[in-house]
Every structure is written in C-alpha cells, then in structure tokens.
Amino acid sequence: MGFWGAMIMSFWGTVFAVAGIVQLDSARSPYLAIPVAVFAAFAVYARSVHRAISREGQIRKLTQRAEKVVQWATIGEGVGILIAINVANNLGHPELKLAAIALVAGLHFLPMAYGIPFRQFYVLGAALVFTSILGMCMPQPMGNAFAVFMACVGLWMAALFAMRRELRGDLPAPANP
User: Fold this and answer.
1) Residue 176 falls within a domain, yes or no?
2) pLDDT at 57 over 70
C-alpha cells in the first residue's frame, strides 16, 4: 500500500468529511477547517514516515499483478460512482447520492483485498458497504451524513494504520507476479 495509498485514502476521507459537514451545516461552516486540519496533520506525519523508510531503503512496491488490480478497481470505482449517482437520481432519491458513493468506494476495496493481497481491505470494504447501506435506510439527511462520516473515519484509520505498519516494517509479503 505504502505512502501514496495512505495519502489517497486520507484525502478521500477528508472529502467525505467535508461532504458530510456541507450536508448537515453549510458550505460556509467553520467546521470545514477540522477535516482539512486533520488531513494536513496526516500529510506531515505520512511524509516523515516516507522519508524514514526511504532512508532505510525499505520501500516495497506492488507486484505488476497487484498494480493492475488496483488500476482496474480504481477505474471500476470511477465508473461505479457515475452509475450510482445516475441511479439515485433516476430512482427519485438524489438525497442518497453521497451514501451511494460511499457504497461504491467500499466495493472497490474488495478486489484489491484479493489482488494485492491485503486482508485488511476486506474489513475496510465491508465496513464501508455496511455503513453506507445503513445510512441509506436512515432518515435523510442524517443517513447520508452517517454514511460519509463513517467512510471518512474508516479511510482515515486505514491510512493511519498503513503508515504505522510501514514504519514498523510489517508489510504484507508481495503477491506472486
């Protein structure tokens, strides 16, 4: 997973947090500074971990097979998000767009968990799928906010654990090419 994967997860966690705050409060909310500050703190921490690992020469890369799985899962996520937004709108429930996006984000971790292999992504993916479905069943806009805040927490935690794991050198063994 490494530095860039952790940075991407923390960035999208921040986007989910901002979307949830805007959903519940407004685009001018002073609370918007909180997720941005968390992302900035994580970026500083992640950069220091990356530098420490780089100096020791312990940076591990994904195999070619794992890189392809990540690439296709990410492409699928982008297409899936567009489809989920369209389905929510066409079913007359545009208020469920954010929860549907969180659902697709969770689903995209499942093939990556298998292809990298990285079992923790099964937990992250299942948690995002479960909380987004739960959010869709709740009264809106609170359900949407619940889904995106849970996605935010899941992504931030996964990014933090990834950096800690990389710092300790507890990286999973690379998959066979």
Assistant:
1) no
2) no
